[in-house]
Design goal:
The chain crosses the membrane at residues 25-45. The chain is an alpha+beta fold. It is built from 7 helices and 27 strands. It has 3 domains: 52-180, Sandwich (Immunoglobulin-like), CATH 2.60.40; 187-324, Sandwich (Immunoglobulin-like); 332-518, Immunoglobulin-like. 22% of the residues lie in helices and 43% in strands. A hairpin with a 5-residue loop joins strand 1 (55-64) and strand 2 (70-81). The radius of gyration is 42 Å and the shape is elongated.
Length: 529
Amino acid sequence: MQTLPGEADDVSLLSGRQRFPLRKYAYALLLLLLLPVLLLVSAPVTAQLIVDSSELTVGLCEVSDPAADSAQVVCAVTARVPSLPMRVTADGTTARASRSAGGTSLGTLTVPAVDFGYGGDVALTLGGEMRVTSLQALREFAAEAQASEEVSLRLEAPLLLRFGLMLSLPVTLRKWLPLRGAQSFPNHILSVDISDADPGGGRERFPGTRLPNVISLTAEVRNPSSFALRPLGALNLSVHTPDGALVGRLSSNASAPLLLPSGASVQRLRGVLVAEKEAGLEAASRLLSDHLSGRPSHLYGVVESVSTPLYDSLFAGMRLHTTLPGLQAPLLDRVEVVVDSRRLVDWANPLDGRPLVLDAYLAISNPLAASFAVMRIDSHIFYNDQRVGRMQLVLDASDPEYDARLDGPALAPIVVSPRQQLVTGRPYPCIVEGSLATINQMQTEMRQHGTVTVVARSELKIGSGDFFTTISYDQPAVSVVPHHAPPYPPAPPVAPFSFEALNGFFNHEWEEMTVRDRGKTASFEWPLR
């Protein structure tokens, strides 16, 4: 049969249309066959990308139940996960922690199953057992965390992610976790007290006991780190001055283990004041000098031991720096001076070469809970930056410079009980060293106000607890007042005195000042009437 023109084209077009659906179905079938393969290849890559792009932020980790090589850790963690088309969970696993990628593992942490939901910011509470794998690596991390503002841990763990109920994919978690450091545990001493040791066994307190003084210290300690330790355990510290001299030993209450929560907490320690060998005695002397004079002292504590074995391994030898505040309570309340008008007249006489010596009672206040004895006094008194007097007393009979020939009762150490305020039962001699003009100014001030304020700079040899030492004591404001004898028995009458009465010895006031400046010296303030 002969084909008409145009029929060939129609037949060709028809056969092409029949072949095209077959081609489409072949492609679709090929895609269906390849889809499982594509999913098997791309799903793990996609799952790993999800893990790698996620972020973990650690809030606070509570560490409890410490054993020799393990502890329970519960951490508040925020996971920032990309948005997911279906619910994703992760099976429980064991994570490995180290200080560097591929470095020595310092410990492992058992992590429970986690539900990431559909992604976004997910708040998680991860808790489990932390087991130490390298004590040395953990100790190095603890030292870095104690001293630094921020530290990092490398966390690695195998994870099995479950996408809904259909798909489970293994991935690997590799993350750097930024953690807050302790910044050397900033602290502030709230109170410190030095007291007598409990003598026990019938032994007397000073001057009979040789037991060391007890230190009671209360401090506010701030823990800014990501770790709270509950409990830390009983803590033992040695206390040193900046040059390394040992001056004390402190401990926390063994029956109430010390806790170190996040943020600020109040800690109480108790121990003894130590003065070992000559260097320790000098350091204790400087410490007491600064403390009693109101000056702060820089100290550091060394962790000697912790009752919890794990923390003892981590923290023993760690240094904690602090500042001991100066005591803001004066030792010398006032000086009560007895004025003898005959002595003053003799002293003002340019023909008399004897120094002016005044009797002074000392009003002493003991701000400490420890008794002490003053064995020697070498004090210089200043008024308006001019030295106007001095008191030098050797009160200890065993001192080679002790003078038993002094008028009145034999000199003896001034023993002051804890928190006691007393006025010495006898007066002590004070030598006047000021010019007549200065003494005249002081007596005018005393007459107007009833008191004169001077500065005392002293070297005091004291005995307390189990040691004797000499301290430098500065008191910027000492009140000098007239001494009034008690009414019974009544004090003998005292003739009135004034510097104006001395004018008969001199031609005029300027000449008086010149003669006095060349000649005699006087002691510090006294009551003139």
